[in-house]
Amino acid sequence: MRRSALRGMGLFATAFLLSAGVAEAHVGTGGASGFATGFIHPITGLDHVVAMIAVGLWGAQLGKPAIWMLPITFPLVMAFGGFLGLLGVSMPGVEIGIALSGVLLGAAVLTETRPPLFAAAILVGIFAIFHGYAHGAELPLGENALFFSLGFVIATGLLHAVGIVIGLLYQWPWGKNTVRAAGGAIGAVGAVFLWNALA
Amino acid sequence: MPVDASAHLVNTGLGPIYDGIVHFAMSPEAILPIVALGIFAGLRGLNHARASVLILPVAWVAFGLVGMLFGPLALNPAIESLPLLILGALAAADIRMPAWGTGSLALLLGAFEGYNFGSAYSAARDGFPALTGSAGLVFVLIAFVSAAVLKAKWDWTRIAVRVVGSWTAASGMLLLGWGLR
To answer: Where is the signal peptide (chain B) (predicted)?
Structure first.
C-alpha cells in the first residue's frame, strides 16, 4: 500500500517535471499592470472587503495570539482556495459562503464572541477558502502571474491590517462600542449579499 | 561570416557584471525565495544565517556554471512557484530545524536558481562575469535580510517578517495554480 502510494507520487512528480510548459517569450513584461490589476481585484468587491476587515477586527478583539495568527494563516488558506479555483475544482455555494462570512464574522464582532482559538481559526479558514476560490476562478488570463498574485495577496493582507488597526480601538471603553458597531455594519452588509445570493 | 553569439537578457552598457546584477534585480521570482530564506534563517538564529550566507552564493555560482554548460531545461514554469511556496511557508511557520537543514535549503535554492541564471547565459560568450555579478547581489541580499531579521528584537518585527513569509507562500500557491491551469 505504502509502496504503491510512493510510486504514484513518484510518477506524478516525474510527469510534473517533464511536462512541457507554455512558451514565455519576453519574460518579466507586464509586471506593473499585473500588480495593479491584482491589487485592485480584492478591493473592488464589497463582500470581500468587509469580510477581510471583519477578520482583522475579530483578531484584534480576541487579542493575542489571534491578532497575529490570523494575518499569517489567512493568506495561506485563502491562496489554497485560489489554487482550487484556478484548477477549476468544483465548489458549490461559493457566493453563499462568502456572504455568510460577512454575516457570521460581523455578528461575532458585534456580540464579542470568544470561541476557543482553534474554533475561530477553523471558521475563518473555511471562509478563507470560499473567498480564495471565488477570486481564483475569476483571475484574468494574460496578466503577469507572479505580480498579479503578489498584488492580490498584499491587498488582502492590507485589508486585514485595516481591520486590525480599527480593532485596536477595542482597548478603550468608547472604542469597544465603535468596534462592535463596525461588526454590526459588516454583518448587515453580509446579510444584503446573502439575500442576493439566495434570491 | 557568422559572428560570436552575445546574447544578454539585460544590457546595461556597463559590462557583463552589471548586466548580471541588473538581471537578478529584475527577477522577482528569484528575489522573493531568497528573501524568504533570509527571513527563515534570521528567525532561526546565527548559525542558520551563517549557513545560508555561505552556501547560497557558492551553490549559485557552481550550479550556474553547470547551467551555462548544459543550457535551459524544458521544465514546467509552475516549478518556479515551489521555492516561493516552500520557503515562504517555512518562514511563516517559523519551523524549528537544525542548521544543516537550513544549509540544505540554501544549497537547493542556489542550485535551482543558479542553474536557471547560468542556463540563460549559455549562449553568451561572457556569461561567467554576468553570473558572478548576479551571485554578488545574491550574497548582499541574503546577508542583509538574514542580518536584519537576526537583529529584530521586538515581537512585532518578528511577526511582520513572518507575515511577509506568509504572503510569499500565498503568492507561490497562486502561481502554482496558475501554472497548472
So the answer is: none
| Residue type for position B152 | A
Q: Which of A21, A72, A87 sits opposite B166 (nearest CB)?
A: A72
Instruction: Return d(Cα B160, Cα A164) in angstroms, integer.
Output: 13
For residue B102, count other CB atoms closer than 10 A to its CB. 24
* Contacts of B149 by beta carbon, 8 Å cutoff, 6+ apart: B38, B39, B41, B42, B43, B49, B158, B161
Residue A196 identity = N
Whether pLDDT at A72 is above 80: no
Question: Which letter does DSSP use for residue B72 in this model?
Answer: -
Chain A contact for B7 (CB, 8 A cutoff): no
Inter-chain residue contact B174 with A21, CB threshold 8 Å = no
pLDDT band at B105 (very low <50, low <70, confident <90, very high): very high
Query: Are the C-beta atoms of residues A71 and B166 closer than 8 Å to each other?
Result: yes
Inter-chain CB proximity B170 and A154 less than 8 Å: no
